[in-house]
Amino acid sequence: MELTPELRAQMTEIIGRYPNSRSALMPLLHLAQSIDDEVTPEAMETIAGVLGLTTAEVAAVATFYTMYKRKPVGKHHIGVCTNSLCALLGGDAVYDAVAERLGAGHNETDVDGTFWLERIECQAACTHAPVMTVDWEFMDNQTPSSAVDIIDRLARGEVVQSTRGPVIRDFQATEHTLAFPVDGLAGEGGEADAIMLAGLTYAREHGMSAPAAPGGDA
Ligand code: FES
User: Fold this and answer.
1) Which terminus, N or C, of the chain has the lesser number of Cβ atoms within 10 Å?
2) Measured in Å, how far apart are the chain's first and last C-alpha atoms?
3) Domains assigned to the chain
């Protein structure tokens, strides 16, 4: 990751959001992945230099959080949730089918390095389990065959729409959004449906509300 004037300006913009510059570390790591599809040792050194941290401090964060990769992800990150509810509804079968299609296991890429496969934890999307993510966009209610079909369509370069988000771009584009969240795409992909709102609907119908937070206004 070469520290060009343009990159320095982007980093300065991100750092300016926070009262302490070191708070910008995580979005800067996402910015690095938007450039290289991984966090390289060079990127860690660059970020450390700009933030006034040691490379070890940057590496400690980059190696702790699983969204930061230290090998090239490729064009698309594929996550399959196999946490409790997704597993009960077939998440492991979805994972197995995708793994067989890609010839890859957990945190591995397919043979040509296009798709990265990862067994992921709960995405708080359990209402539409089993859930797969493509570049962190949701693909709800998957089956083994529907998940493989999505991989096939992406491999052919077809347009693939998230079931509750925008058209799939690629991993690096998503990483850029994680560094610069205002991308104009927040309104795409529809709104919360009745299943997602079932708890809230029930609460309203029965006059239920959450207790006030200690010391809070509501
Ligand atoms: S268990 Fe898979 S999204 Fe919650």
Assistant:
1) C
2) 46
3) 5-64 (1.10.10.1590), 76-171 (3.40.30.10)
Positions in the chain short of pLDDT 70: 216-218
Q: What is the pTM of this model?
A: 0.92
Burial of 69 (0-12, 13-18, 19+ CB in 10 A): buried
CB distance 89 to ligand 1 below 6 Å: no
Measured in Å, residue 79 CA sits from the centre of ligand 1 at: 11
For 117, the 3-state DSSP assignment is strand
pLDDT at res. 63: 97
For the stretch 43-59, pLDDT in tens is: 999 999 999 999 999 99
138 CA → ligand 1 middle, Å: 11
**Binding site membership of 125 for ligand 1 (Cβ less than 6 Å):** yes
DSSP 5-20: HHHHHHHHHHHTTSSS
Whole-angstrom Cα distance, residue 118 to residue 167? Answer: 21
Average pLDDT over the chain reads 95
